[in-house]
Amino acid sequence: MFAKRVLLFALVLSLALVSACAPAPTPTPVPTATPLPTATRVPPTATPVPPTATATPVPPTATPTRVPPTATPTPLAELVPTTIPITGTLAHPRSEISGLAWSGDNLILLTQYPDFEKRRNLAPDAPQAIFAIPKADILAVLDGGRKDAIVPKRVRWIDEDLIKKVDAEGFNFQGYESIVIVGDAVYVTIETQNKTNANLMQGYLLAGKIAADASTITIDTTKMTPIKAAAPLNNMCFESMFAAGDKLIALYEANGSGINASPVGIVFDQKTLAQTGTLPFPNVDYRLTDATALDSAGKFWMPNYHFPGETELLKAPRVDAIATKFKQGTTHAQFVQVERFVEFQYTATGITLVDRAPVQLQLIDKDTARNWEGLVRLDNRGLLVATDSFPTTILAFIPIK
């Protein structure tokens, strides 16, 4: 029994020794796993919501202002002149009023031909004359106190041998065109036409005196200063003139850019009648036919007139720069003729347009054009205006503030 135990023990010990002396088996390596690539982040389909911010309040829906498509401009207001009725030979269309001026409280109405009564066979034996109307008579009509027509007073006109002297210079006399009165001094321009060239016009400046009672005007015909026309246009000359200090400024009647690229006012000395210079003047289409006296700020008004018969002669546009800027009145938009009054500014260095809408008159119809050739201020009320022979003789008032 004991021997079996010894034998079994020896066997176990042998096995243990064998196991201890044998080389250790090489372990099977575990393969290193391929690392997974970093995945590209795919954003969610929905747009990420930004962090909460203070929202701009949305105003309540308002009714939008309706903008009309290309609205028609509001037409410039047109005035209807108040007629001042007159009677006698001056009321005849052939009297041809060509200028107005004040002599004290008498409105002096210059006619183109002071001998028109004889020339037109209205009063063959009447001596030369122009006419005057007391301011009081005009105010009485405008204020409603007078209903009957005014009878203008005759002002005897003396211009000894004027026509003969013009003729001697190779020109035909075509009448008086403008008048300025300073105290008892009277200044006038006349229009003449060359005998051999109808498009060669020439003006002349003359001076004279008016009696204290406005009964007589005497023109000194020994001194005539010629004024060369600015363009070779038949029947166009110097129809406007005003006084500025000791000077006179005469203005040519056609000043559109198509015929008179650089218009000027011609400056004269009142004492000697000598030309002393020129002043720049703006381009203004159509005719300019008279001028008021300067106000205290150096401003003055001029009639700006056009009738269709002169469109080609004056190269006149259908709508000029003034109408484009200030718009046209209803009748001016319909008809071709123009009847308006434009304000200017005088300075010692030039004459400019005042930035003010013109005063437009309501036109009568498509066939009638009133040729306004006389213009003066009436105190602070507005303007007195007068036509020559077209369509008839009209003396009228236009209120201007």
Question: Care to describe what's here?
Answer:
The chain is mainly β and 401 residues long. It has one domain: Tachylectin-2, Chain A (5 Propeller), CATH 2.115.10. It is built from seven helices and 23 strands. It has helices at residues 2-21, 116-119, 135-142, 162-168, 311-314, 321-326, 330-334; strands at residues 78-79, 82-83, 97-103, 106-111, 129-134, 153-158, 171-182, 185-194, 201-210, 216-228, 238-244, 247-252, 254-255, 264-269, 275-280, 284-288, 299-306, 338-347, 350-353, 359-361, 372-378, 382-387, 395-399. The protein has an eight-stranded mixed β-sheet with strand order 3-4-5-6-10-9-8-7. A hairpin with a 5-residue loop joins strand 9 and strand 10. The N and C termini lie far apart (158 Å).
Q: Describe the largest sheet.
A: 8 strands, mixed
Question: Overall 3D geometry?
Answer: globular
Query: In whole angstroms, how far apart are the ends?
Result: 158 Å
CATH class term? Mainly Beta
Question: What layout of secondary structure does this protein have?
Answer:
Elements: H1 2-21, E1 78-79, E2 82-83, E3 97-103, E4 106-111, H2 116-119, E5 129-134, H3 135-142, E6 153-158, H4 162-168, E7 171-182, E8 185-194, E9 201-210, E10 216-228, E11 238-244, E12 247-252, E13 254-255, E14 264-269, E15 275-280, E16 284-288, E17 299-306, H5 311-314, H6 321-326, H7 330-334, E18 338-347, E19 350-353, E20 359-361, E21 372-378, E22 382-387, E23 395-399
Brief digest:
The chain is mainly beta and 401 residues long. The protein has 7 helices and 23 strands. The radius of gyration is 48 Å and the shape is globular.
